[in-house]
Predict the 3D structure of the following.
Amino acid sequence: MAKTLLVCLDAIDGVVTILVPKRRGEGFLRQPFGHHVGQLTVIENEIGFDIWGLDGSLDVQTGSIYGKDIDALVTKIITPLCSHYGMAYRVVDSDEYWTKHPLANKK
C-alpha cells in the first residue's frame, strides 16, 4: 500500500495539520520537522506560512482560513510537501486524524 500524507483542516484556528508516514515500517513520524534547517524550511519560505512539526504532525499556521478558497490554499501548501516526501495526500476528518496521530496513540 502506498504511503499517503493525511491532511486535516482546522478552519477556526487556521491550521493545516499533516501526518507524515514513516518511510519504513508502520505509523507516522513523531517529529516530522525535526530540529534542523533543511528542505522543509525552504518550503516554508516558498509557501509563505510557518511550519511546526515537533508534536506528531506538521502544522502549517495560515491564520484564519474562514471564507478563503480552501482548495487553493491546500494545493499551495500540499503540492511542495507531496513533492518533497514523494507521496500523495488525502484530506481526513478530525476523528481519523486523532485515531492515527502518533502521540495520541502511544503503545
